[in-house]
């Protein structure tokens, strides 16, 4: 039987506050390093540049609310362009890869400066390796923890601002001096923390409908908090007498001066953990975009191969090694900031410009003009970085060159060979199975992850004892364990082969199998939802083979299932 590739639309489960937490992980952390970098570059005139930077952030954020509306199935630079211009989409994706790599390096290094460690670079390298190792298992609860830390960090920053308010009227602000070229160069040096909105745009394909409303509710609160607080804390920073240094931990210096050293320590710890969360998000972003490119045959197919936890293993290894290498060669915040900007500004420039030039989408005249204006401003920023920051230009060229070489190899030497004949099953979605209830109705659901003959034999006996002759067999694929921008997923060859074998084995007992395929990060919850929708009365499952460590990071499947089942549905564990 020929292999049947079936594409199934991913469920739209990303709520506005979850998307907002992801965005705050990038934009929110920018306060931790942008303030210090701005003061190092412009001194007491930094408040003015921070104000312009905040206005640019608002402009870009507003443009992305437009992009999220017109591209509800993926508005990131790669997902929005891959059906129009593959070369341009690949270039944008490679620049975004450069950005994510430096985001991981910059965020981790800044975190350990706030932790006040003796060797921040060494600790940062070790932390990136540890985060990569944890992601090998693909933790499913990290988003909740990041949201909690983000809320605490935001509250602590707002409280800090509250203590600075009485001093703001007495600040002696200085306007920038020198030539326009000098001040423009300083401004370009602080154009940071824009990649979070690209990550949000990538996720429109899995956002709760309507996407326009969900994306706006995610973007605007974070956008206003970051833009206003960064600017106002920048003014407060300039009021500190005899301020020197603190490029790496300016929030600590502001808190120490306006409140007390204990508050400086507390806010440092909170933002350090938030920065580590941003590192985790950046690594996942790297894995995600390489996975999507691999699926489109723009990178070797090895980037789509998953480990047993549903994580693309090669993409994760590369996503862990590259930020460590970046830190090995560049280990100061100002230098990393230059590397960071060239990637994210390039990717966003391509996305905004391409959207403005796309006359097939419904844009108001003022919206298109706004996209043109934003893309032109960012283009000037990108050109300035390329001319002035030669290390950043070299870094971007290396990333793009390596990516294009891998693309060529993937299309020339690593072409996927699709087998003509393999065992297969025509898998169904839950909605399709509900449509077939009049033909195939069963009160049994078998949850399976690997071949388990005892589970199948015992279930067959129970089905026969109840006078039935069919069963739903559900395979939940933890694939991928990253928030990929792909809005459609397909069953793996392994899942189809397993369902085919189960179908064959159950047929020996005279049982007709209705094979179901689902995907998600919480298998137990997904199985329980399936049982409820199909109105089954008994769910059978094999004893868990997961270790305690895996259960800690990914959740206990049996506990999730038991808690999610309805009271009149029985759970039978065979093992």
TrEMBL record:
One of its GO terms (molecular function) is transmembrane transporter activity. GO terms for cellular component: plasma membrane. It comes from the Bacteria. This is UspA domain-containing protein. It is found in: Cell membrane. It is a multi-pass membrane protein. The keyword Repeat does not apply. Its main location: membrane. The chain crosses the membrane at residues 21-41, 47-67, 88-115, 121-138, 145-164, 184-211, 218-240, 260-289, 310-330, 336-357, 369-387, 393-410. PANTHER family: AMINO ACID TRANSPORTER-RELATED, INNER MEMBRANE TRANSPORT PROTEIN YBAT. The keyword Transmembrane applies. Gene3D superfamilies: Amino acid/polyamine transporter I, HUPs. The lineage of its organism: Bacteria, Pseudomonadati, Candidatus Omnitrophota, Candidatus Danuiimicrobium. Keywords: Cell membrane, Membrane, Transmembrane, Transmembrane helix. It holds the Pfam family AA_permease_2. Residues 472-572 form the UspA domain. SUPFAM superfamilies: Adenine nucleotide alpha hydrolases-like (SSF52402).
């Amino acid at each position: 039987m020929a292999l049947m590739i079936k594409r199934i639309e991913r469920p739209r489960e990303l709520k506005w506050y979850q998307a907002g937490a992801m965005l705050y992980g990038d934009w929110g952390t920018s306060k931790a390093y942008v303030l210090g970098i701005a003061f190092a570059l412009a001194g007491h005139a930094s408040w003015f540049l921070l104000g312009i930077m905040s206005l640019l952030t608002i402009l870009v954020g507003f443009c992305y609310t437009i992009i999220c509306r017109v591209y509800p199935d993926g508005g990131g630079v790669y997902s929005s362009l891959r059906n129009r211009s593959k070369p341009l989409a690949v270039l944008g994706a490679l620049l975004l890869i450069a950005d994510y790599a430096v985001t991981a390096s910059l965020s981790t290094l800044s975190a350990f400066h706030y932790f006040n460690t003796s060797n921040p670079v060494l600790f940062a390298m070790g932390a990136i390796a540890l985060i990569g190792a944890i992601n090998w298992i693909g933790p499913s609860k990290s988003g909740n923890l990041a949201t909690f830390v983000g809320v605490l960090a935001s509250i602590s920053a707002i409280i800090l601002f509250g203590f600075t308010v009485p001093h703001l009227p007495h600040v002696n602000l200085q306007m920038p001096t020198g030539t326009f070229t000098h001040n423009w160069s300083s401004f370009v040096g602080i154009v940071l923390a824009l990649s979070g909105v690209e990550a949000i745009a990538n996720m429109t394909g899995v956002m709760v409908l309507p996407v326009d409303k969900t994306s706006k509710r995610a973007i605007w609160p974070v956008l206003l908090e970051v833009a206003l607080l960064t600017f106002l804390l920048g003014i407060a920073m300039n009021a500190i007498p005899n301020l020197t240094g603190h490029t790496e931990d300016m929030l600590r210096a502001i808190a120490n001066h306006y409140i007390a050293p204990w508050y400086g320590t507390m806010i440092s710890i909170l933002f350090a953990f938030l920065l580590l969360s941003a590192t985790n998000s950046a690594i996942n972003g790297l894995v995600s975009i390489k996975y999507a490119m691999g699926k489109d045959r723009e990178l070797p197919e090895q980037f789509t191969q998953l480990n047993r936890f549903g994580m693309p293993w090669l993409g994760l290894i590369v996503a862990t090694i590259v930020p460590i290498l970046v830190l090995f060669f560049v280990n100061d915040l100002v230098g990393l900031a230059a590397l960071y900007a060239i990637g994210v500004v390039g990717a966003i420039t391509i996305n905004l410009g391409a959207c403005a030039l796309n006359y097939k989408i419904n844009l108001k005249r003022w919206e298109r003009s706004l996209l043109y204006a934003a893309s032109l401003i960012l283009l000037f920023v990108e050109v300035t970085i390329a001319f002035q920051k030669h290390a950043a230009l070299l870094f971007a060229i290396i990333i793009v060159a390596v990516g294009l070489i891998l693309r060529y190899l993937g299309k020339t030497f690593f072409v996927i060979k699709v087998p003509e004949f393999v065992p297969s099953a025509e898998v169904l979605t839950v909605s399709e199975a509900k449509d077939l209830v009049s033909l195939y109705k069963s009160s049994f659901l078998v949850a399976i992850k690997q071949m388990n003959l005892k589970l199948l034999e015992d279930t067959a006996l129970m089905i026969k004892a109840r006078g039935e002759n069919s069963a739903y067999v559900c395979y939940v694929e933890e694939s991928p364990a990253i928030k990929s921008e792909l809005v459609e997923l397909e069953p793996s060859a392994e899942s189809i082969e397993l369902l085919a074998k189960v179908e064959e084995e159950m047929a020996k007992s005279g049982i007709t199998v209705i094979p179901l395929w689902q995907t998600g990060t919480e298998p137990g919850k997904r199985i329980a939802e399936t049982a409820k929708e199909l109105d089954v009365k008994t769910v059978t499952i094999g004893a868990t083979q997961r270790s305690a460590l895996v259960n800690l990071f990914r959740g206990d499947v049996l506990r999730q299932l038991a808690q999610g089942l309805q009271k009149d549905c029985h759970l039978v564990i065979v093992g």
